[in-house]
Design goal:
Layout (H helix, E strand, L loop, with lengths): L1 H23 L3 E5 L10 E5 L2 E4 L7 E8 L3 E5 L7 E8 L2 E5 L6 E6 L16 E2 L16 E10 L16 E4 L2 E3 L4 H10 L10 E6 L5 H13 L3 E8 L4 E6 L2
Parallel strand pairs: 10-13, 13-14
Antiparallel strand pairs: 1-2, 1-8, 2-3, 3-4, 4-5, 5-6, 6-7, 7-8, 9-10, 10-11, 11-12, 14-15
Length: 250
Amino acid sequence: MKKIIVSLSVGFLFLAMSCSEKKEEINGYWISAGYSLDREFTTFYINDSVFIENPFGIYRYERYILHHGDTTHELFYPFDSWPTAGIFYVEKDTLIYIRESPQDTTNFIRFIPESIGTDLTFSEYPISIALPEEEGYSVIEEKMLAEDFFIGNLKKGNHSKYPEINPDSILIQVYDKFILFTELTDWINRAKAKVDEFERDKIIISIYADVETPESFLKEIKAKVEQNGLRTARAYKNPVDNKIYFKMMD
């Protein structure tokens, strides 16, 4: 009987080690192939059963992994109904991520964040944003930052994807949409709707603008926001700690 128990224990230990080794094959940082083509790209980080998309960005998306054997892995959103977010598997050195359908498939390769040589904060955006750097900053209550406007020029690798956009145009992006200046009021009203009416005078619109954005353009946006009773704060990167802070726009 003792021999049987020992055999089962050794077998279980070997199985656990094998599963651990298989999981380690997917753990780490991954970047979408073609990231060097000066257009938007995706990064994510895997640690056992946690999948974090855009780990270096403004918005991070966390999902959970259900491992089907050693090769196929299913992603779930952490919502009440736990909807499926896609599946992925690894072939040699490539991770194949299939979202809603086989037509929406992206290949990823491993990478070391420090070796990329580019800021990954806005990697998933089709516009180019390099924040101005400044060591001084103002502390702003985060809950009052009710809407984010991203401002910059189209990345060069996206000119063929958006042939209708002039490469020199300054673009305003909200979520995954480009909006016209004339549409700002609609988005400002959406920001108001997120906050209780008695606190709306405290709402601040966050401006993530490329360092090359003309001040005249930013002043026009600020004026439009103020016409609707709100305030604006511009994002800066502090070179000391490499974090993003906000300063109220004068």
